[in-house]
Structure prediction request, 490 residues.
Amino acid sequence: MSDNQTMMQYFEWYLPDDGLWWKRCAAKAPNLSDLGITRVWLPPAYKATSRDDVGYGVYDMYDLGEFDQKGTVRTKYGTKDEYLEAVKAFHESGIQVFADIVLNHRMGGDEVETVTAVTDSASDRNVQVGGEEKIKVWSKFLFPGRKGKYSNFTWNHTHFTGTDATATDVSPDMVYRFKGKEWDRDTDPEFGNFDYLMGMNVDMDNPQVVKETEKWMKWYIGLTGIDGLRLDAVKHISFQFYRDFLKDIRKSTGLELPAVGEYWSGDVGRLVYYLETVEYSMSLFDVCLHYNFYNAAREGGNYDMRHILEGTLTAQCPDNAVTFVDNHDTQYGQSLQSPIEDWFKPLAYAMILLRKEGIPCVFYSDYYGNPVRSRPMVPNLGKLIKLRKTCAYGEQTDYMDNDHVIGWTRSGDREHADSGMAVVLSNAEGGKLSMMMGKENAGTVFYDALGNCPEETVVGDDGFAAFRTEGGNVSVWVRKKPFEELVINE
Prediction:
């Protein structure tokens, strides 16, 4: 396995509801390993509110496509056995599997309860706008199809903090907070506090909930053999909870269990504060870098590329940053819609795949394309991933003092034969940079592995060479002989 970890988010929002996804994952595992993918993030594997749910409308986390519940045995992606086979196939190909863990809420309750609640403003949850009233809510989760297998724990209103809907109505301007409950204060400060997100809000201050959640996590790890966790919506859950939860699970299982959290904020200060609070027990997706890419793509030649890394987690906490270009939430039509424009995606992927900071996460739709939403695959993305695997090693030297044409070199190392590279990209007119590859490389011929520049360049006696790129494009210059043919097995 390459020293360079590379993750792929192996799903997107608009996958077909045919129950064949886990089988497709198993079939593609060898190709992904050959490409250079070392980790895959798979979608939520447990039963949601319906068969076509992407997986975030969580109903029963013990049902991985095994029981007849919510009108289906399988999930959108397949059955429990097919999921386990997919995990096995990835492991046999040397790829770690990260499971999508959604603990914030439950949806699709089985029975209604009458509870006493007060109403808080949806725009400021610290402001109460209504007194006590009796409401009916779908808060009893009995899991009749599972009949107590794996766990006899059932849920009722005491295990939740509140909701935004009664059994008959949704309240867009307020949220119901159950009597005797308080929103967690150590959450994101948006909307006063952002404890409540959707559905029935799980009460992480309830000892029974914490105990059952830890029990489930140990069961899930033991059954599936997953290697890591993608933690959904961490800014909506008590910061203290995940700090303690991860510590306890790692201690009890004896596993390293790397984790990456989704804290959706463009404010790097909030991301750094969260990492400090959870004692750096996880990494976070670098949302700030995504928004820099988004703005750079929209502004085109008016964007100053010297600032592309400023205000990002990658710049401030590179060891805890997972970098990405797009994901299932930023796709067209989704709540966090902010897709990177097509022309800029090769530049963005070069920045996350070929630099030393962070662990990059490639989006499924960018690699394969998305015919449902008429989105093309990103040109040369497979080559960029493979170049990371073969060449992106050694000391990094930046050349970031031009507002449109920027670049960097990687010196290579002895452990990876013929490694090292020079990367040049431009958001406006084309240009070239004189960059150091080292006197030891004098006379070495480099070529653009992406094929955007047809000429070759030779390292001079002083160790420098001129590396060029076309306008609005990226070029990756590597030693000519070993890498003339980059074979990508789709």
Summary: Residues 7-104+208-391 form a domain with the TIM Barrel fold (CATH 3.20.20.80). The two ends are 19 Å apart (CA to CA).
